[in-house]
Amino acid sequence: DRQTLVAVLQFLRRSNLRESEEILRREARLLGDDLGGNVATVATSSPGVAAVAAVPPGKGEVCGVGPTSAGTPGSGEPVCCSQPRGLSVMLGHKGAVVVEDQPDVSAVLSAYNQQGDPTLYEEYYSGLKHFIECSLDCHRAELSQLFYPLFVHMYLELVYNQHESEAKSFFERFHGDQECYYQDDLRVLSSLTKKEHMKGNETMLDFRTSKFVLRISRDSYQLLKRHLQEKQNNQIWNIVQEHLYIDIFDGMPRSKQQIDAMVGSLAGEAKREANKAKVFFGLLKEPEFDVPLDDEDEEGENEEGKPKKKKPKKDNVGSKSKKQDPNAPPQNRIPLPELKDSDKLDKVMNMKEAARRVRLGPECLPSICFYTFLNAYQGLTAVDITDDSSMIVGGFADSTVRVWSVTPKKLRSVKTAADLSLIDKESDDVLERIMDEKTASELKILYGHSGPVYGTSFSPDRNYLLSCSEDGTVRLWSLQTFTCLVGYKGHNYPVWDTQFSPYGYYFVSGGHDRVARLWATDHYQPLRIFAGHLADVTCTRFHPNSNYIATGSADRTIRLWDVLNGNCVRIFTGHKGPIHSLAFSPNGRFLATGATDGRVLLWDIGHGLMVGELKGHTDTIYALRFSRDGEILASGSMDNTVRLWDAVKAFEDLETDDFTTATGHINLPENSQDLLLGTYMTKSTPVVHLHFTRRNLLLAAGAYSSQ
């Protein structure tokens, strides 16, 4: 409004802030002679500094002049001013400063500028608490979700505005009321007692920048809104408006059990539309080639000795029909590497093995073979086993990578260049001849990392090995020469996990910098960067069709990313601790996840819903794997046990009707005990890796811990 503008211009002139006056005049298209003398009283009521904030074009922003903001008793007159985005004009007595508007820490925090009387915060909170506790049972469970985000924001607001004693008493009075799964976050929060502490704290900033999502029925929301407006409890209403995202649905309010199953992540639940995108979860059609099955018997005896080459596929190819899966992505949706002859040979081997596969089920459980690492130098930090179960690799805290052969066939390197030049390249057994017998040994040690190795992954063709480390790099090793070929540098912090695509060529890594990266072995820059998690990306997994990647994080969510365009197509919330293991079912429809909370959760990828919860483990679950045909899910944990679950029963007759999908009312069957087929204890070995061989023998691995 013109009068206000004129008043501000006069104030600037009186304060000798000519530069600011000029800028404002140009913005407002006011010429010098427009300054009247009749409105000189505005904006002088405070000795403080007026700040004109950057706002999007067309929106007026009310900026307080004086110690408290507009609308509170004793404040100066509000100065209203609209201004193009990108410039903040700071007005001070020392002269005008024009700064570029960057979303920096102080800008993020400034939303906590004081709005209410600090002494009343406890009263506001306890008033709302009383109202929610006295509301009807059906609404109470839903509205109780408000306690935690409101508690955090009110506490941070008190700290930011330097009311330290009020903040302390507010925290002490109400922190005990929060749900147990927020204890770790509250511990971080309790250490933030001064405004300065907030500046560099990442958890804090995430809480500020990402809106906490609550899913509430329309009835409960109306009830809350009415209460806050009647009480004129603006403080809480402002926080609800500004910092919370309320996903309102029509229908019955959810029960306490339904809510508890889904909440617990750093930013609340996922918005419903986050899980609406179409996901092609079907499998790609197998390439067709002839399988010579006639000489099966002679090959049987020769299996161990013959040089087995390349590329297995996670599924039993032999028994699959050749029809295209309706839910599969188009064959050429992402470019996949061509099959080499050695890959075809390996597929043939795979089919033959599949023909002898044991059909597992509740009546026929797999045998389990456990590889225990003894004297694991400073601790074993990662394990992987090749698809044909011929090699096992360990990543260690002393920054070495160690590869063992678990068949009688020893590991050999390729001969030196001088020796290779003498070989007849046309001979049939040239692949045998290039290997140097003098180098044969059961164990090869790979040196190169300068920190603990947290993730390892064999390529499907067994020619390469990936390892990732605390030193921020991912390394690609050749299993022909046992040397490092490439060091991929993209993460600036520890890399917690890496995994090859089931088709080779692509791989994914995730780390402390909160992003996952997709790489191709022949590019030294990442092809995709998947950003969105609010804390470390702790584990990564490719979907069997290689078009999607799942990531688990310390923010207690699992995200599914589309490799084609880098979009996040699913967000799953429900775990109460950092996620440490992921496994896709062989048919690509389901995902199993394990975390520090000791629960295995099962997800329907197509519908974006949680469909099961397996309770039994008492410690972090570090390993999950489905059997080759998907009948059994094996889980391995820090509680020194391997547990087997009936996956067929867990996924049969799922209730995924439209209503459930629309509102997220999930009804988890309380049948963990019926699904548990067996628990197998080790003496004192936490289980860090599980692998089903092509014939469905279960291999497990871990390092013996003496305590």
UniProtKB/TrEMBL annotation:
Organism for this UniProt entry: Vidua chalybeata
Gene that produces this protein: Taf5
Pfam families attached to this UniProt entry: TFIID_NTD2, WD40
GO biological process, one term: transcription initiation at RNA polymerase II promoter
Family statement: Belongs to the WD repeat TAF5 family.
Protein name from the UniProt record: Transcription initiation factor TFIID subunit 5
Keyword set, alphabetical order: Nucleus, Repeat, Transcription, Transcription regulation, WD repeat
Primary residence: nucleus
Disordered: region residues: 291-343
UniProt entry tagged with the keyword Calcium: no
